[in-house]
Structure formats: C-alpha cells, structure tokens
Design a protein that fits this description.
This protein is of the alpha/beta class. The chain has ten helices and ten strands. The chain folds into two domains: 130 residues, Nucleotidyltransferase, domain 5 (2-Layer Sandwich), CATH 3.30.420; 159 residues, Nucleotidyltransferase, domain 5. The protein has a five-stranded mixed beta sheet with strand order 3-2-1-4-5, with helices on both faces. A hairpin with a 2-residue loop joins strand 2 and strand 3. The mean pLDDT is 95. It binds 5'-O-[(R)-(carboxyoxy)(hydroxy)phosphoryl]adenosine (KG4) and zinc ion. Zinc ion binds next to helix 4.
Length: 320
C-alpha cells in the first residue's frame, strides 16, 4: 500500500510518500523566506504560496520515490487544526487527486501526524512541542488519545521564536537561539519555572518571554549567548518536569517527543537521561511534513472517504 500524505496546515507545503512504514519521499517547500520580513506567518500569503508550489512539490515527491501517480494507492491530508485558507489548499488538492483516480481519501488530524512521526507502537506518552502546540497526550492505541495537559498561553516553539526575536535573531528563531545557546552559560540567569505549584500537567511559556523582556530592559548589555542558554535551559527544564511527573502518575515508561522543538539538542539530551525510554522522530520528520500524515493514515485505512469534509481550523484531538 503506497500512501501519499499532504500537509499545508501552516507555512510549509509538505508532501510525503510512505509504503509499509518506509518513508519513500518527504519533500517540504518552506515559506520561511516569504514570511521572515514580517516576523511571523502571514495567513493569506501562506495560502497563495501553497497553491503556487503544490504541483511541483507533488512531482518532486514522486521523483524522489521513483514512482508515478498511478502507483499511489491512497491519499491522506491534514484537515485541521491550522490556518483555514492554508488547510483548504491541501484538503481540496487531496480530494481532487483521490476523486479523479478513484482512491481512498483519508483525513488526518495534524497532531496525529506528529504522534505517528516517530513510528513507535502505542501505548506511550507523547509530548508534542511545536510552533503552534505544546500538549501532552496519553496514546493508549491508535485513535485513542487523552490530553493530560497543554500550554495555557504560548507554545514552546512560539516562545523560542519570540525570545529569539528579542535577541535580534532571524525568524523562525528556535534553531538560531539553540545554536547561540550552545556557546552560553545555562546557569547565568535563573528564571522562575512556570506553574511550579500545579497538580496538573499544563505548560506556560509567556512568563519566561516576559522575564527575558524585563531582563533586557534592565540590563541592555546582558550577554546574548548566556541569555539564550538560560532561557533554553528553563524551557527544557519545564517541559521535562511536567512530562516526567505525568509519566510517574500514569505509569508510562515510553515517551515520544514530537514537533519542531523535538529537534532541540538540549531537550533530546534531557529526555535521553530521564530514565524513560525516549523516542524522537528523525530530524526531517520533526517539523511539519507530509510523510507524518501518510504514516498516521496507515492506521486508519478502514475509514470510508468523507468527500464533504471541511477544513477545521480549531480541532481538538481529544477531550482534555
Ligand atoms: O512542528 P513545527 O514545524 O510547526 C508547527 O506545527 O507549529 O515546529 C516549528 C517550531 C518553530 O517554532 C521553531 O522555532 C521550533 O519549532 N524549532 C526549534 C528548533 N528547531 C525548530 N525550537 C528549539 N530548538 C530547535 N532546535
Ligand atoms: Zn506541526
């Protein structure tokens, strides 16, 4: 079974091809340069760019896999959550492709794609930390998810991007901040950890961003590398503390860390030393991509195609 997966939920046009768990192609056309001057994603421009490049991205994915369109057995696509205009491009494209070729059409939740990206079999605990989401899920089986906690404000990646901007780094700032942090002292500045007294498993990152803003106002000459390292240290410590507490409370010893922030070196190191069996998707599958959508679709091939399905910009994965 060869599955084509499409993700246009935000600012990357991703198309991947998967056969029996093997990723045959994973092509992502990034819109970073388009949005960089604005310091964030411009929704209308994102939709137009998806439309402009999606044909090419499909052809590149087929070339990479050494396949033709006639070799595809099913078409999967992210239908939410995300930017509605951006989602609609991928969704309509996938429906058209599947309908024209008489193939099954499988709608996938974006977060289910991230959960499937590491190809670990459930049960496990899954921390998704990306630019748009920071959530902790109990994954008992494919399709059976319980959200244990989520960010009450900014997502972890969003906090990385905002603090990177304060430090004068280019957009998206996560990887840049992380590189700068590698040269700094993580103990130079002690930030108060968010939600220290909670009994639940939520996250919060906007307070850390405010702390960095205030620090820069009071000490404009503060060492940027030390600040980056201390901020990164605080985010990683907070993600790890909540996740390890949730693992202890639920009894899971297998952890999957997914989403763009799972590319972070310090975060990987922290979880590798945590005592849990920690899995990370390959780097190419951490940020948004189409292959993860195809991987998630493998687990729902029995679902009948719903051609009337609409894009769902707000779409919880499970009850909280
Ligand atoms: O999963 P993703 O592509 O987007 C969403 O679905 O939102 O994740 C992108 C996010 C950005 O905020 C980016 O700054 C962050 O992941 N990111 C990182 C690193 N690489 C990407 N954050 C920290 N350290 C990294 N190495
Ligand atoms: Zn994502």
């Amino acid at each position: 079974m060869v599955i084509l997966g499409i993700d246009t939920s935000c600012d990357d046009t991703g198309i991947g091809i998967v056969r029996g768990g093997e990723v045959l192609a994973n092509v992502v056309a990034s819109q970073t340069a388009l949005h960089a001057p604005y310091g964030g994603v411009m929704p209308e421009a994102a939709s137009r760019e998806h439309l402009a490049v999606i044909d090419q991205v499909l052809q590149q994915a087929l070339d990479q896999a050494g396949l033709k369109l006639t070799d595809i057995d099913a078409v999967a696509v992210t239908y939410g959550p995300g930017l509605v205009g951006a989602l609609l491009v991928g969704l309509s494209y996938a429906k058209g492709l599947a309908w024209a070729r008489g193939l099954p059409f499988i709608a996938v939740h974006h977060l289910e794609g991230h959960i499937a990206s590491s190809q670990v079999a459930p049960p496990f605990l899954c921390l998704i930390a990306s630019g748009g989401h920071t959530s902790l899920f109990e994954v008992s089986a494919w399709g059976d998810y319980r959200e244990l906690g989520r960010s009450r404000d900014d997502a972890a990646g969003e906090a990385f991007d905002k603090v990177a901007r304060l430090l004068g780094l280019p957009y998206p700032g996560g990887p840049h901040l992380s590189r700068l942090a590698a040269t700094g002292n993580p103990n130079a500045f002690a930030f108060t950890l968010p939600l220290r007294n909670q009994t639940g498993f939520d996250f919060s990152f906007s307070g850390l961003k405010t702390a960095v803003t205030l620090l820069l106002q009071q000490h404009p000459d503060a060492d940027r590398a030390d600040l980056a390292a201390s901020f990164e240290h605080a985010v990683v410590k907070s993600l790890a503390q909540v996740t390890l507490r949730a693992a202890a409370a639920t009894g899971y010893d297998t952890l999957v860390v997914a989403g763009g922030v799972a590319a972070n070196r310090r975060l990987r190191q922290r979880f590798a030393e945590s005592g849990l069996v920690a899995h990370f998707p390959p780097l190419a599958l951490t940020t948004d991509n189409g292959a993860m959508v195809a991987l998630a679709a493998q687990h729902r091939l029995m679902v009948t195609s719903d051609w009337s399905l609409d894009a769902a910009p707000y779409l919880p994965l499970a009850r909280s």
